[in-house]
Design goal:
22% of the residues lie in helices and 7% in strands. The protein has eight helices and eight strands, in the order H-H-H-H-H-E-E-E-E-E-H-E-H-E-E-H. 21% of the residues are buried.
């Protein structure tokens, strides 16, 4: 589940282990803030002695931070770790009480769990009350229950999973979502087109549907036209992208679109395709593919066989080949 991967990620960060967290390496620095009853330092506390204890028996915050930031340090994070991970570890040095126990849930605004074998988006995510960005790319997720997603989400990235149905995701979707990434999944049209409307995603600005199995261009555009805030759309890799009028029809049908398939839509292109949206008859539900065979290796060449004399009774060997292409 996502929660299990989340806790495993925190364990790897070592937020309670040296040089982070509360420990013998910095204990007096935080004890000095509290009285024996847990409040502020009592009137009998000796600041000079406390400072001396920190300097002689413990590590200073500056030294601990250097251990985290120096790329040659054994406690440095790998280069592929996110800025959020680095921020959490630095916070665990300067204010470890903020990342202790359940307090850590209030810190996360972005969560990236990539290629961790996650199959389930469970309700444990609801503890992340401040979460705005959730990246779950390259996992094994086939269905997403929207009730388990924080309502604060603005970015949801599910690229390279096994999502084939959007019904559960659209039952109660995050109302403020601005980017939805569903590229490289198993979505098929037209059964899923009905879930790509403003009724479910009123604030959607960016939508990635690349490399799925959408085939009905006219039907999909009819649904997408309700997304008034949509500015970025990616549809490349779908069968409908093979239609000759594909780009022109989309550019003219969605006048507020700024970027299509990672290519900016300029005024010249809008002028060139003006009026194409009113000619749906130009959209053909077929495409022609020409396959040319350059060279085949590993089979005998019939032209190189010795020619038999006329009337010869020697056995004749013939060859036939079947070449199959999968699209």
């Amino acid at each position: 589940s996502v929660s299990a991967a989340f806790w495993e990620h925190l364990r790897r960060l070592g937020l309670q282990d040296f040089p982070c967290g509360l420990g013998s390496w910095n204990k007096s620095r935080f004890n000095a803030r509290r009285s024996p009853r847990g409040g502020r330092p009592g009137p009998g506390a000796d600041p000079a002695r406390q400072e001396e204890t920190v300097l002689l028996g413990e590590e200073s915050p500056e030294v601990l931070m250097e251990l985290l930031r120096d790329q040659h340090s054994p406690w440095a994070l790998p280069p592929d770790c996110s800025p959020q991970d680095q921020h959490l570890r630095e916070m665990a040095v300067l204010a470890p009480e903020l990342v202790h126990s359940s307090n850590v849930f209030q810190v996360f605004k972005s969560l990236r769990i990539i290629d961790k074998g996650v199959e389930e988006v469970d309700e444990g995510l609801l503890q992340l009350h401040q979460l705005e960005e959730l990246i779950l790319s390259a996992n094994h997720i086939s269905r997403i229950t929207s009730a388990n997603l924080p309502r604060t989400l603005k970015v949801l990235e599910l690229c390279c999973n096994a999502v084939a149905d959007l019904q559960d995701l659209c039952a109660h979707p995050p109302p403020e979502l601005q980017h939805l990434g569903l590229g490289y999944n198993r979505l098929c049209g037209p059964s899923q087109d009905k879930y790509l409307t403003a009724a479910f995603w009123p604030n959607l600005v960016s939508l990635d549907l690349s490399f799925n199995n959408f085939t009905d261009l006219l039907g999909l555009v009819t649904q997408l036209s309700s997304l008034q805030k949509l500015r970025i759309l990616v549809l490349q890799g779908n069968p409908l992208a093979l239609i000759s009028t594909y780009r022109g029809f989309l550019v003219d049908s969605l006048p507020k679109l700024s970027i299509l398939d990672d290519i900016h839509i300029g005024p010249d292109e809008r002028h060139q395709f003006h009026g194409l949206a009113r000619q749906p008859e130009l959209i053909r539900s077929e495409a022609r593919v020409v396959v040319s065979i350059g060279k085949i290796k590993g089979v005998p060449d019939p032209s190189a066989c010795p020619q038999l004399e006329v009337g010869s009774k020697a056995p004749v060997i013939t060859y036939s080949y079947c070449v199959t292409y999968e699209f």
